[in-house]
Amino acid sequence: MKFIQRFSIGAMSLAAAIAIGACGATHTTKETTTTYVPTQPAEVVVQAPAPVIAPMPPTTTSTTSSVRSSDSTTSYPGSGTQSSTSNRRSDSTTVSPSN
User: Fold this and answer.
1) Are 67 and 88 in contact (CB under 8 A)?
2) Which of 54, 75, 83, 92 minimizes the number of CB atoms within 10 Å of its CB?
3) 2: how many CB neighbours lie within 10 A of its CB?
C-alpha cells in the first residue's frame, strides 16, 4: 500500500510540476511569407541594318598610242637641200566599267 501512496504522490507532484512549468512558458510562432515581385521585361533594342555598300564594278582600261612621222627634203638649186622631220605622238586612255 505504501507503494501505491508513494506512486500517487509522485504522479501528483509530477503533474503539479508540469502545470506550474506550463504557466510560465511562452509559445513563439515564426511565420515566413514570400512575395513574388515580377521583374521588368527585357528591353528590346532594334538596330537599323548596316548600309549595304555595293562593290565597285570591274573596269576595262583601253590605251591607244599613235605615232606619226614625216620626213621632208627640199632641194634648192645653188644652195643645197633642206631636210625636215616631224614627229607627232598621241596617247589616249579610256577607263570604263564592265557590264
Assistant:
1) yes
2) 54
3) 6
Q: What is the pLDDT of residues 32-53, one digit of tens each?
A: 888 888 888 888 888 888 888 8
Report CA-CA distances (Å) from 77 to 31, 51, 73, 80, 90.
139, 80, 13, 6, 37
Residue 44 grid coordinates = 528590346
**Which whole-number Å values give the CA distances from 68 to 71, 85, 90, in the listed order?**
10, 11, 9
Residues 6+ apart with CB under 8 A from 58: 97, 98
Report the length, in residues, of the chain: 99
* pTM summary value: 0.29
Among candidate residues 86, 84, 90, the one with its CA nearest the CA of residue 69: 86
Residue type, 87: N
CA within 13 Å, CB half, 68: 3
